Amino acid sequence: MKTWINQHSRLLIFLSFFILSVLSLYIVYLQNNHIMIGDDYHFHQNRIEGLALSLRHGLLLPKVSYFFIGGYGYASSLFYPDFYLYFPAILRVFGFSLATSFIIFAIGINLGTFILTYISGKYMGLSEMKSYLFSLLYTLSIYRLQDFFNRQAIGELLAMSFFPLVLASLYLLKHGKEKKWLLLTVAMTGIGLAHFISIEIISIFIGMYILLNLRSFLKKEVIFAILKAAGVTILLLAFYLVPVFEQMKHTTFQVTSNPLTLISDRSYSFSELLANSFKNTVFHASSANIGIILLAGLIIYGVMLFKRDAQHRDLIILALFFMIIVTDLFPWHFFDQTPLNTIQFPWRFLSIVTLLLAYLIANDDIGLFKKIPSSQIILIMVILIGVGLYEKESIDTEGKRILSHHSYDQTNSYYIGAGHEYLPKEVDYSTIKKNKKRKVLYDSDQINISNTEMNFDSVAFDYHTKGTQETMVTIPFIYYYGYQAKIVSNGNVKTIPASLNKENGLVAIRLAEKGRVSIFYQTTWAQKISLSLSIITLLICIIWKSRPCTSTELNLKK
Fold this sequence. Notes:
Strand order of the largest sheet: 3-4-10-6-7
Structural class: alpha+beta
Radius of gyration: 26 Å
Distance between the termini: 33 Å
């Protein structure tokens, strides 16, 4: 029996991860056919539904989602990467309910995080058991459960799946394995495809890690490896990054003109953070925490700093540093008007604290697992019991957030995120919501409009101006750079760019004489070129990794 288990250990580990992926969601997403909703559930629910609707209409790579805002359209696919959402969206296209699609997706997120964390542990030289423990400590950590259940911050949650790979990449580079630089590219690209803010957070961590290990990283081969990883990551993410910068260049959005919050207003007191962690407090706006298991690890390894022979001193320092910057001990007010304000909430750095402490505890520098028989099994049981208790407490304290699966399937397209970040600054969203019946707006004294057709992603109509001068017509689409108007007039066909109506933030066009016009969003050249660049980069990476190794490379690997 023992021999069979050893031979099939990887299969058994995978099966246990799958079972835990389901069981860790059972109380909040499956029990009694009810689902507990989080702060961001409406928005991500609508993103999935919008992507599914676009796919049904043949738009494989949508930029504007016309499901949002009752058809006015919101460029969620431009500013929030859809890459991972294709999975639940395709399930919707195949007829699964929205609740079922989301739950299957959630199980997949858990399973992916378990596996990636386990693999990362193996890259860092952990034994099979320690890698397994690392995976459980991280994937089932309190902060990650808060992201999952109470916030349903799907972008951040997906990004966190790749944080362990970043740590593993830095570990390998630190130990002279610069030929493994592509692992860092995979990790950073995985994060970038999920959540841009997490790119900022993990980049700060990478910078701090390098500073604390400067002697290991100030080598030509390692510097070159990092530059290659950064360059290839940027190229792979060009299809997403370039269009975002293009939009920002042409339009001022509310994310910059009217930011949701100032980062200095969202820090905690240190005592409050410790108290919430000690109690495994259910998440509210002021109660994000790391939970009692990781808090105990932080205290134990914090004390280890005073020992002369302390191992992983850099990780302990970083765990303490990122714990402190979550609090008001750090002068966040100096960063309110800087790009760091886009992080919004200092407690997002608890994801880094969670990662480091999960690794430190699993690695067991203090030799606790050797001193106490079965201590690893006991810790696993404590983790699992803690998950169940946290879920139950979430249900008990968040009763108003529990919906039936049927109720979850009922969507409201007017939820676009609390800050309405990517609406043009000219849009008054309260006015948009009052005028849910979309209409073409124009001055009837200057132009006649007839035979109006409002399709899924376009508006068309006949027109006849009453004078010799051009007149402006406003189209019921939120403006984004890329809208075009195809005009057929006097037997001629021409396509002109639409413009922003500076009074209401909608699409505007200027018309003269008579004819028929169709208004639609067209992929810009910058979007096409950047997509091509990312695809070519991906193909080169695949071909490069698939090529047969030379004898020299084989010897280097050995």
